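Homework help board

Subject: predicted structure for assignment chain

Our instructor gave us this sequence and asked us to write out the predicted structure in C-alpha cell form, then describe one feature. I got the C-alpha cells but I'm not sure how to describe them. Can anyone check?
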Amino acid sequence: MATDTSTNKKGEIEAEVKHTAHHAGAAAHKVGDAAKSAGRKASATAREEMANLRDDLGDLISRISTLSEAEVEEAKEKLMAKIASTREAASVMAEDAREQFDHGVAYSRDYVKGHPMQSVGYAALAGLLLGVLITRR
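My C-alpha cell output:
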C-alpha cells in the first residue's frame, strides 16, 4: 500500500509539474509574442520614417542647384523638422518596447509570486534540461 501511495504522489507531482510547465510555456509565449509584435511594429515604423527622410533628402539634393537662398532655407527647415519627427518616432518606439518588456517582467514576477513552488519546479526543470544539453556537447 505504501508503494501505491508513493506512486500516486509521484503521479500527482508529475502532473503538477506538467501543468506548471504548460502555464509557464504559455506565459513565455505571450511575453515573446508581445515582444515580437512590438519589435515588428517598431521596425516597420523606423523603415518608413527612414525611407521618407531619404526620399526628401534625395529630392532636396536633386533640386539644390536650382533653388534660391530662401528656398534652400525652407528646405533646410523641412529637413530638420523631418529629422526631429524621426527622432521622436524612434523615441516613442523605444518607449513602447520598454513598456512591453516591463509588462512581460511584471507578468512573470506576478506569476512567480502567485505560484512559488511551481516556479521553483520550472527553474529546476530548466536547469535540468540545460544541464542535459550542455553535457551532450
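Reply (TA_rk): Your C-alpha cells look well-formed. For the description, you could write something like this. The helical segments are 2-63, 69-114, 116-136. That's the kind of observation they're looking for.
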